[in-house]
Each structure stands twice: as structure tokens, then as C-alpha cells.
Design goal:
By secondary structure, the chain is an alpha+beta fold. It has seven helices and 18 strands. The radius of gyration is 20 Å and the shape is globular.
């Protein structure tokens, strides 16, 4: 496997999701929460903060302490990979909302607010369907070596790292059905994350979990976006777009996620849209004539992170409302052959006034907005790729930048 740091992407292929799931592994808690004395009280103090606009990186790493690493499966016929989101030392409050009918997941039950585990150190997004969930084992081993995880004994090394993971379906996208992420891929991705400095850019497009991803009939991939609220809270998203539904308005060629995102979207010229539709139809016919075509399995998987000190219940609500952004940018979503899953990480560095629903509502709304924008960025960052069943066309090749 080839470790990838946040740099420039090259592109992937097609993908779908498992109708298989490997779920939770319960675990005990007591990983140190963020000390309230260290948290910043921007919300209560009324300190000035930038308005609701993208931050310079416009990435998940705009949330202080969050790092991202990618790794790809190496070899001929391989078109898959893994992305790891590494939390700060001490972990982050985590939650999940699974809406797809065919999820491939691990450790999601541990994130239920009724259960014991309070914080996690990493989240894994991976290709390879349920097989690819083995990538989380490599991340687990890396964390254990550093004494990071849920303390289960008196010694500093007696820990059980809880590493939630979700997989998308990209089996055979590069031609080799067995070329999929394993524990070594996960280890390479977490090492790539750990090697980054604070606030580094995140590679987008055909990298990591997005290497073999498809967005409807178009090339999918990794995208990320962020926003700083007037309260001083940062909300960001990272997504691997591998959707069964379409990301493009068939009537105009506009990306669905660009509607309602501020300025009215620029519509591609009618002749460009018509030419794109014709080319996609030719590619589809050629693939079907050759006996190819993607299996009807997909999944869009994402992490939404914030520096707000959310409770576990609030974090779960954020994971749920973030799905609204997915529904804006992909149509339809949450099908039986999708495994759409959104994780939340809350680092707790910025206090949110207790008993003020309006302050939390602003964060919930921002989660949906940044996820929709991250999906748009993933599709625009993707580049066309040759697969065994034909050419996987990108939006930019068809419509331009």
C-alpha cells in the first residue's frame, strides 16, 4: 500500500457499499476528557470571531488537533484505499448515525450515548466493503503501541483502542477482486496522519477511501470543507463519495450540492450538458455491451468534526443532521444498497453555553452545510480513471472546472 499525506490527488474508480456489516465491539471507558480549564470560552465571552465563511484550508484539519492520512492499496488491478481521521491526544467525543440499508461498519454500537465509551482516538473510512474493515486493526495496533485507548487495567499499556470504522463498496473496481485494504493499509494511513503537522491541507479526489469511489456514473472521491461560525465554533466535514444516487441535476448539469449554497450556481452551457449526457450514455452502452457495469452497491461515508464541547447526545444529533447535507447533494440517498454513515468527533475546545439550544442549532445546521459542500468538492476534485469495465469519467472532464 502507498501512504498518502495531504497533498495532491490522483483519481480513482467506481464504488458501492456492502450489504454486510461487522459491528461494534464494546469497550470500557475512562479516556481523559478535555479538561474544562483548557477549553476556550469563545461563545460565553462574546469574543470576536470570523463570520460564517470557509476557513483558509477549508478542510477537516481546520478543527485544531484533527489530522488526516490516506493510504492506497498497491499493485496492478488495485483501486482502493483507506483514510484515517486521527483525534488529538486524549481522544474526542464521538457519535454515529447510520442511514443506509447495507452498511459495513465496526464499533458503531460503542458510540451509542447509552454505552460506556466516552471518547475515541481515531475513525477509519475505507474501501474494500466489509473486508476493508480490517484496516481498523492496523490503526488499533498503532494506538495500542502508544498507550492510547480505553484503560482496562492498572498499567499504562493496558488499553483497548476503540476505532470506529465504515466501509464503502469498491471491490473489483481496478480489476482485482482481492486487491482491498487490510491492517497494513490502515497502519500506513494512520502513520501518514500522525506525520502531518497541525492544520495541514487534506488531499482530495482519488485518494484513500475515495480511490475507487463512484458518484452515480461519475468518478467519486474524497472531499472536505469547513466553516467558522460567528460564535467561534469551527465545524468541518470529510467525505468519501461513493453514491448510488446522482450528484448532478439531469436537467441542467449543475451539481445538486451547489443549489442553495450561497450565490446561485453557474449553469453549464446547454450544449456542454447535452454533450456530457451523450458521452455518458455511450460509455454506459459500451460497458454493458462488454458485459461490464458496476454492481448496485454503494455508500457515502463521512466524518463531521467540531471544536465545540458537545455532549455525546448532541454529537449524535450532529451526525444525524449532517445527513441532511448528504440528501441535498446526492439524490436519492439512504437506499437498501447504500450504507450511508456519518461519524461525529467533538474535541471540546470551545464551550457552548449549556441550556442554550440556539447555540447548538447553529452547529447542527453548519454540519449539514459543510457536508454538502464537501461532496461538491469531492466530485470536482475527482479525475477520470480507466477501469476494467471502461473509463470512469469525472465531472470536470465532462463539464470543465
Amino acid at each position: 500500500m502507498i501512504p498518502m499525506n495531504p497533498v495532491d490527488p490522483v483519481d480513482p474508480v467506481d464504488s458501492a457499499d456492502p450489504v454486510d456489516s461487522a459491528d461494534p465491539v464494546g469497550s470500557a471507558d475512562s479516556v481523559n476528557p478535555v479538561d474544562s480549564a483548557d477549553s476556550v470560552n469563545l461563545v460565553d465571552s462574546g469574543a470576536e470571531a470570523p463570520g460564517r465563511a470557509p476557513l483558509p484550508l477549508d478542510a477537516l484539519t481546520d478543527v485544531a488537533g484533527i489530522r488526516v492520512g490516506h493510504a492506497e492499496v498497491a499493485g496492478a488491478g488495485a483501486l482502493s484505499g483507506t483514510t484515517v481521521v486521527l483525534a488529538p491526544e486524549g481522544g474526542a467525543v464521538a457519535a454515529v448515525d447510520v442511514r443506509g440499508g447495507g452498511p459495513g461498519t465496526r464499533e458503531t454500537d460503542a458510540l451509542d450515548p447509552r454505552n460506556l465509551v466516552q471518547r475515541v482516538d481515531a475513525v477509519v473510512l475505507t474501501g474494500g466493503s466489509a473486508y476493508g474493515l480490517d484496516a481498523a486493526s492496523g490503526v488499533m495496533a498503532w494506538l495500542e503501541e502508544r498507550g492510547r485507548g480505553v484503560r482496562v487495567g492498572p498499567g499504562p499499556t493496558q488499553v483497548v483502542p476503540v476505532v470506529p470504522a465504515a466501509a464503502l463498496f469498491d471491490l473489483g473496481r481496478g480489476g482485482d477482486w482481492r486487491a482491498r485494504p487490510d491492517a497494513s493499509t490502515g497502519r500506513a494511513a494512520v502513520e501518514a496522519a500522525a506525520a502531518t503537522g497541525p492544520g495541514e491541507p487534506v488531499a482530495e479526489g482519488g485518494v484513500g477511501a475515495g480511490t475507487g469511489a463512484m458518484a452515480g456514473q461519475l468518478k467519486g472521491g474524497i472531499g472536505t470543507a469547513s466553516v467558522r461560525l460567528a460564535s467561534g465554533v469551527t465545524v468541518a466535514a470529510l467525505v468519501a463519495v461513493n453514491a448510488a444516487g446522482s450528484v448532478v441535476d439531469p436537467g441542467t448539469g449543475v451539481l445538486f450540492g451547489e443549489y442553495g449554497a450561497g450565490e446561485p450556481p453557474a449553469h453549464p452551457p446547454a450544449e456542454v450538458h447535452a454533450a456530457a449526457e451523450r458521452r455518458l450514455a455511450r460509455e454506459r452502452e459500451a460497458t454493458e455491451a462488454a458485459g461490464g457495469g458496476a454492481p448496485p452497491f454503494n455508500t457515502t461515508i463521512a466524518v463531521v468534526a467540531t471544536d465545540a464541547d458537545l455532549t455525546r447526545a448532541q454529537a449524535q444529533k450532529l451526525a444525524g443532521t449532517a445527513h441532511d447535507g448528504l440528501a441535498r447533494a446526492v439524490r436519492p440517498v439512504h437506499l437498501l444498497t447504500d450504507g450511508d454513515t456519518v461519524f461525529t468527533l467533538a474535541t471540546g475546545q470551545v464551550r457552548v453555553p449549556s441550556g442554550d439550544p440556539a447555540a447548538v442549532n447553529e452547529i447542527l445546521a453548519a454540519g449539514a452545510d459543510v457536508l454538502a459542500r464537501a461532496i461538491v468538492k469531492a466530485v470536482r476534485a475527482a479525475r477520470s480513471t480507466e477501469g476494467p469495465g471502461g473509463r470512469l469519467l469525472s465531472y470536470t472532464e465532462l463539464y470543465g472546472d
